[in-house]
Amino acid sequence: MANTMVTDEHVATFATDGVVKIAGAVDPSFIDDVLGVADEQLAEPGEWVTDTNPGATENRLFTTRYLWPTNDAVRRFAFDSGVAGIAGQLMGATSTRLYFDHLLIKEPDTVNPTPWHQDIPYWPFLGKQICSVWVACSDATVDESSLEFVRGSHRWDAYYAPEAFGDSAKAWVDDFDGERCPDVEAARDEFDIVGFDVEAGDAIAFSSWIVHGARGNGGGRRRVALSTRWLGDDSTWHPHPGCDPTVTENDTTAVAGQYPADDERFPIGWQRS
């Protein structure tokens, strides 16, 4: 279903802006499954977790990632919901490979924003055909921590140093030496910012090079989203100091500077007919 929703207008907007929203992209059955996974993970967190206020029902920013190898619901979502095809069609790729899944939860009245950042410097890849498909699993406004973007910033030819979103990441991002991302929040009027209110099932697809962030959750309801990260045709394996240790050189057969043709770690999610 999701694949047929990608229009020429979506493709053009993605190329120009670096981000596009596709309403109603994912079937409710997949959303229900993710909400169940969210409850399970909040109660018993897995290995790759950021948690600012463990156990709380308010003011808690919780993320966990790389669930697909062990969680059937997340694996079905990644490979059966259509998000892989959305990524491939928007990027103009012939196929997409899954890098990782990322479950993101902000409980009501969560103060912590998601700081303005690029994704690409955090990841051990290079290439312009690398993107995320962030799917809302609950309704959310921008004030309830739906995403905001600096439109067109994927074309800045910039590569900003990653910053830790929680204590668990400080050990690896501190190894990166580079220019810091602009303080967009302190000078919002100087940037072309676009934000998206979403309903459950809506998808926001965006380039790994675009500058983006999210406010704290100022509403009275939990915000849940599942983002899958996809590699297109020009992606190359690029491990470097400061990148995410979820998958390292010791975990993959991928070769630095080459396309990551590792079907076990980076499985194909979609191929163009």
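The record above closes out task 2.4. Task 2.5 opens with a second protein, given below.
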Amino acid sequence: MRFGWVQYLLLALLMGAYSGTISRIGNLSVAAWKPYVWEYSSALIDVAMIPFIVKLERRFNLDSRPRARIIAVNTAAILVFSAVHVTIAVALRKLAYVLAGESYIFAIPTLPLRLFSEFQRDAVVYLIILLAAFAIRDFQVRREGELRAVKLSAELGQAQLQHLTAQIEPHFLFNALNTISNRMREDIDAADRMISQLGDLLRAAYDTSDEVVVPLGRELKWLQDYAAMMVARYRGQLAFDLDVEPNLEAVRVPRLLLQPIVENAFRHGLPEGRGRLSVDVRRIGMRLCYTISDDGVGLSGDPLARGIGLSNVSRRLSLLFADDHQLSFREHSPRGTIVTVQFPVSSPVSP
């Protein structure tokens, strides 16, 4: 925290008022204003010296090495601080006494004792300021380190998310080209349409290639284009349904999260290209729920072990939402599989 002159002046006034009151209680035989002159003159100098002590501590850090050097520097600084304090304080007190029609006497016979007393007091004040400066600097350094660690962690997480998202595109592209190649042997026109659809998909993907989250409407458009290509491949043997709750298009969701799940259902749940696959998107409070169901062959083994698609989805959900998400698989009666994905969302309303 940085202090301006107003804060320093306020601090001096508070210190002077407190010390003056304590001194007044212990010196009831003198005029009431005198203890306040003594203490205010000291407080003003103490506070005025704070910035210099802070700079000295930052120049010669209290926790640095060698220790002997730090001790020597601060011992010299205490002597200077005390000399400056005594000199200016006496001058201020003499001035205040003159204005009051009296004289302030810094008695010569007792001068050594007075100087020793002042030095003790100044050494304590100096050390308090020095330790406070060290504590504040140490707190700031630790806090900045924590903030840097959080920032680096966030940047690492973002980089990992972008890497995981990027993994989906070549994986999808390979599978899509393989699908088109298979269809080309049977129906050139259908393969040509699928190439056009693939071009639209890739254009949409690269338009948002740096984004980890996108509006739901954009994610669903990608999914519909992909599903249309897959339905065209199997020439009416495969049905795809998409049911979306109204007014969710602007909700921001993880990019390319649905497509790998749907692709997995096509490849493993409906491997012969026959059956129905449905995607249902609903909002439940502050959570979005995807339900992907098929009437295919059902579960066999660990779905997450089938390839990079589902494992990629699982890792991205963990990075984005930690433990606040759901990715579950269960049997669909009478046959097939149901995949459920839930995660928290904010609440924008689509235009």
